[in-house]
Amino acid sequence: MAHAKIRLLPRKQSSLKKGSILRGKALRVSVSIGARMSDKLLKNIAMMTRITEREIRKLFEADNYAGDYAMDANIGSQARILMNSLSDRFEDMFSRIAGPATDDMIEQVDSNSAATLKRSLREIGAEMTFSTDIMTAELRETIAASAAESVALIKRVPAKYLDQITGGVMRAITSGNGLADIVPLLEKQKVEVKNWAQNVALDQTRKVYNGLNAGRMTALGMDDYEWLHSHGSNHPREYHRDVLDGTICSLKNPPIINLKTGVRGKPGDEPFCRCTMRPIISFDDE
What we know:
Oligomer: single chain
Strand content: 5-15%
Order of helices and strands: HEHHHHHEHEE
Shape: elongated
Strand order of the largest sheet: 1-4-2-3
Number of helices: 7
Structural class: alpha+beta
Helix content: 55-70%
Radius of gyration: 25 Å
C-alpha cells in the first residue's frame, strides 16, 4: 500500500490487485458557507450604495446648484469633498467587517473540510484510525495567507464601487448633464460591485477549502487526486475542462494550470476557478 497512514478495511484490501486505484467522493465546499459570507458583504454594500445615491442626489438637487453645473465652480469643490468623505466612511466600514467576516468563513470551511474529507475517505473504504481535522504548522500558514487575501479583497469593495462614480460625478458637472448622467452610472456600479463581491466570497471560500484539503491529504500521506471540472461555468477555462478534467494529479508535483503563464497549482488556485479534487489512493505490490 502506497500510503502508510491510510489503512483500508480488510474486506476492501482483500479485493485489491496491483495497480488498483480507489477514488473517494469529490471534495466540494458547502455552498451555504460562501452564501453566508456573500450575504454579509451585500448587506453592507446595500447600505453603501443607498447612502451614496442619497448624498449625490442631494448635491445635484440643492437649490443653489439648480443652474448651470458646468459654470459653478462651487459644486465641483463640494463634489470632491463629498466623494472623499464617502470614501473614508466606507473604507472604515468595510475594514471593520473584513476580519470578522473572514474569521467566520474560515471557521466554517475548516469544519466542512474535515467532515467532507472524512466522508470521501470512507467512500474509498479507509479505516478511520486518524483524524481529518489535522492542524499542522503548514495548514496554519495556509489559513493565515488565505485570511490576509480575503481581508484585503473585502477592503477593496469601496474602491471597486466609488472610483468610477467619482469620475462620473466630475464628468457630469463638466458636461452640465448632472443627474441625467449619474443615475445610470450609479445603477451600473451597484450591480457590478454586488456581482464582484459575490464572486469574491465564493472564490475565497473555495480557495480556503481546497487549501485545507490539500494540506490535510498531505499530512495523511496522500499525494494523488483526480481533477474534476465543474462543467457549470458560463465561461469555462477550456484547458481545465478539456485537458485537466479527469486526470490524476499530484500535490507534490502540481500540474500547469495556466498555459499562458506556466503557473502550476491545484483546483481553485486560478481566480474564480470552480474545479474540485477527488482523493485517489493507488496501490503497488507492497
